[in-house]
Amino acid sequence: MRTTIIAFATTVVLFTNCSGDDKSRKNLKRTYKVCDDLYAEVFCAFGQGAFGGSRDAEWITDSINFRLFLGSFDEIEGGFSYKCNGDTIYVMQRPDAIAGNPKDTSVTTIYKISDLKKKQNLND
Predict the structure, then answer these.
(1) Are the beta carbons of 73 and 53 closer than 8 angstroms?
(2) Are 59 and 25 in contact (CB under 8 A)?
(3) Coil, strand or helix: which one is 59?
(4) DSSP assignment string, 35-53
(5) Cα 81 from chain centroid?
(6) How many Å apart are CA 89 and CA 113, to the nearest integer?
(7) pLDDT tens per residue across span 87-112
(8) What is the pTM of this model?
(9) Which residues of 4-43 are buried (b: 16+ CB within 10 A; e: fewer)?
(10) Which of 46, 52, 74, 77 has the fewest CB neighbours in a 10 Å radius?
(11) What letter would DSSP give residue 60?
(12) Cα separation of 111 and 62, whole Å?
């Protein structure tokens, strides 16, 4: 009986520690400049260590007015790229195998930087 309880408790601890939160901003991996006064922040949403790849989450921010969650992706196959044109930013998402998307497909989302700054949601 004691062995069963220990095995059950160990299983519960392992699964609760392995469940990732895609929007978690606890483990910053890197920050890089996207445009003038606009940065991308990449956080480790779920790390598998030696057992496999990790999932990363990416946000864009101006560090003063807003922070916008773009999505999460496999650190090897997925990710985001950006193109800036005046007040407009084009965010291209490269899908990953985890999402079940074909690798040759990408999604582009267009944002107005002035609209993002009006949100005032830096710590959401």
Answers:
(1) no
(2) yes
(3) strand
(4) ETTEEEEEEEEE--GGGS-
(5) 13
(6) 7
(7) 999 999 877 655 555 555 678 999 99
(8) 0.68
(9) eeeeeeeeeeeeeeeebeeeeeeeeeeeeebbeebebbbb
(10) 52
(11) E
(12) 13
- Alpha-carbon Rg for the chain in angstroms: 18
**CA of 22: how far to CAs of 16, 25, 46, 57, 115, in Å?**
15, 9, 7, 6, 24
113 three-class SS: helix
- Cα-to-chain-centroid distance, residue 67: 12
- 1/107 Cα distance (integer angstroms): 53
Phi then psi for 6, rounded to 5 degrees?
Answer: -65, -45
Q: What's the full length of the chain, in residues?
A: 124
Q: Give per-residue pLDDT as tens, 13-28.
A: 444 444 466 666 677 8
Q: Using an 8 Å Cβ cutoff, are 68 and 53 in contact? A: no
